[in-house]
């Protein structure tokens, strides 16, 4: 039974966080794990959409979300946040990008800031397959097509009206034939 | 290996059989230190509720940010595998119920406290222990704290569970904080730093708004110690004066990357939004209880007059 650590205030992340972290096999050990994830997070902030193996993508997503949420909560004048940004982003112009571009973009977001999409899994390849990690609001075309079908779209409105017309025409025809049958009998 | 006096750590149930009922006040000199009044982490402490308006114009009750330091046991254990929202809610209700019966005051590691426990085996049915809080932990109804004192040259520590129904009274004799969150190094420090008279009177606070941080740096006894203090980043200890090989080994064994591990920090704490929700739920009842106690105290002092 442990008490929650009160030294830092963190924002809630809107991604599924697993209870235990994934340990990658690195020659440098745990320090090397963070070094590799740093490279991934830097690349994500730089290119806004990267394709990589799924386990690394999942771990880096957590760290990227934490970095952006800290930057939004505390701003760039907060010493601890700036230290974290300095550590996690290997290129220093990306620190400017984080605070000047990404923070205003995600200021009013109620969802997560990143999207993790499963990529192709080619045989023989790596067992876990690839994934595409991207920052939301990026300038590239969407990875997945829109699956929504709103009733107020014009073609849907026209189709609904056409259906109604067809049904009422069919009812009239049926009513006409039954009347003629009753008239005959 | 040197033989050392066995550290006697008790749970409150066993402690009764080891105490002399007429405690002799200790002749050891009390530690003189200067308390420096520094502002709390969250700035000035205020008791009134903060009311922020939401879009509809209704006031939303938000607890003051310092609540998380005053009542840390209301936050659940951050380990994700054992989280259960319903269990936590029921536990909070039980905690508030207990707090309505007995006053559990605000205290921190480094505060000197006196706890009275009901004890069937003692002549006056109560056992009182005074000590400095060296550590606190646990969440919910299992929240605990350890008090340490040196009684007749024997170091004694007792772990009290805050919500145990056997506890009759918890008094804070001196409310202050220290430079570290855990004072376990007092076990290896000179005894004068852990000695407090058993008949100590509660001290008046100079400033009700701010909890002072005592910048005392404690002197440790010569080695061997119970833990490798040079490997822990202790602020409240004087220079350890160890040979360089200790510091070299400490550097080799250290994990400096943990400072930057954002997900590790996330898994060890409760997010701010959840904290706000929990304290908003609990705050109005806690404030009502505090008001009632203040009224009772005022009425009591009026009756005396």
UniProtKB/TrEMBL annotation, chain A:
The keyword Ribonucleoprotein is annotated on this UniProt entry: yes
GO molecular function, one term: structural constituent of ribosome
Family of this protein: Belongs to the bacterial ribosomal protein bL17 family.
Any Pfam family hit: Ribosomal_L17
Protein name per the record: Large ribosomal subunit protein bL17m
N-terminal signal peptide: none
A Gene Ontology BP annotation from the UniProt entry: translation
InterPro entries xrefs: Ribosomal_bL17, Ribosomal_bL17_sf
Keywords, comma-separated and alphabetical: Ribonucleoprotein, Ribosomal protein
GO CC term (a single one): mitochondrial large ribosomal subunit
Species name: Daphnia similis
TrEMBL record, chain B:
Gene name of the encoded protein: EOG090X0F2L
Family classification: Belongs to the bacterial ribosomal protein bL19 family.
Alphabetical GO biological process terms: translation
Gene3D superfamilies the UniProt entry points to: 2.30.30.790
Entry keywords, A to Z: Mitochondrion, Ribonucleoprotein, Ribosomal protein, Transit peptide
Gene Ontology CC entries for this record: mitochondrial large ribosomal subunit
Subcellular compartments: Mitochondrion
Disordered: annotated segments: 34-57
Name used for this protein in its record: Large ribosomal subunit protein bL19m
Compositional bias of kind Polar residues: 47-57
GO MF annotations in UniProt: structural constituent of ribosome
UniProt source species: Daphnia similis
């Amino acid at each position: 039974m442990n008490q929650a650590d009160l030294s830092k205030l963190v924002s809630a992340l809107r991604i599924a966080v697993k209870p235990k972290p994934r340990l990658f096999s690195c020659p440098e050990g745990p320090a090397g794990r963070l070094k590799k994830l740093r490279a991934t997070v830097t690349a994500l902030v730089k290119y806004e959409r990267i394709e990589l193996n799924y386990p690394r993508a999942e771990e880096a997503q957590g760290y990227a979300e934490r970095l952006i949420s800290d930057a939004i909560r505390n701003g760039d004048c907060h010493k601890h946040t700036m230290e974290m940004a300095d550590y996690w982003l290997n290129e220093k112009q990306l620190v400017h990008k984080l605070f000047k571009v990404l923070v205003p973009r995600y200021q009013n977001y109620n969802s997560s800031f990143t999207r993790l999409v499963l990529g192709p899994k080619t045989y023989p390849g790596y067992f876990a397959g690839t994934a595409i990690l991207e920052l939301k609001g990026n300038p590239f075309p969407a990875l997945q097509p829109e699956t929504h079908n709103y009733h107020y779209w014009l073609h849907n409105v026209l189709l609904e009206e056409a259906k109604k017309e067809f049904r009422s025409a069919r009812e009239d025809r049926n009513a006409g034939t039954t009347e003629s049958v009753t008239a005959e009998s | 290996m040197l033989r050392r006096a066995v550290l006697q750590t008790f749970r409150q149930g066993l402690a009764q059989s080891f105490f002399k009922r007429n405690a002799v006040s200790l002749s050891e000199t009390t530690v003189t230190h200067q308390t420096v009044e520094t502002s709390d982490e969250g700035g000035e402490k205020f008791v009134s509720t903060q009311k922020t308006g939401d879009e509809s114009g209704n006031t939303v009750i938000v607890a003051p940010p310092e609540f998380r330091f005053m009542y840390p046991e209301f936050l659940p254990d951050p380990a994700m595998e054992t989280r259960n929202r319903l269990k936590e809610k029921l536990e909070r209700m039980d905690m508030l119920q207990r707090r309505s019966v007995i006053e559990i005051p605000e205290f921190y590691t480094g505060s000197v406290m006196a706890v009275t426990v009901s004890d069937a085996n003692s002549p006056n049915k109560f056992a009182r222990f005074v000590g400095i809080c060296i550590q606190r932990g646990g969440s919910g109804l299992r929240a605990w704290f350890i008090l340490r004192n040196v009684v007749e040259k024997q170091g004694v520590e007792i772990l009290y569970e805050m919500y145990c129904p056997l506890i009759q009274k918890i008094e804070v004799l001196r409310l202050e904080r220290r430079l570290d969150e855990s004072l376990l190094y007092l076990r290896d420090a000179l005894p004068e730093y852990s000695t407090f008279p058993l008949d100590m009177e509660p001290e008046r606070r100079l400033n009700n708004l701010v909890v002072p941080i005592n910048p005392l740096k404690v002197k440790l006894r010569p080695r061997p110690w119970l833990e490798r203090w040079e490997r822990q980043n202790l602020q409240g200890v004087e220079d350890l004066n160890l040979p360089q090989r200790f510091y070299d080994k400490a550097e080799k064994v250290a994990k400096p990357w943990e400072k930057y591990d954002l997900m590790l920090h996330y898994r060890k704490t409760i997010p701010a939004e959840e904290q706000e929700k929990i304290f908003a739920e609990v705050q109005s009842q806690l404030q009502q209880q505090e008001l009632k106690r203040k009224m009772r105290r005022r009425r009591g002092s009026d009756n005396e007059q």
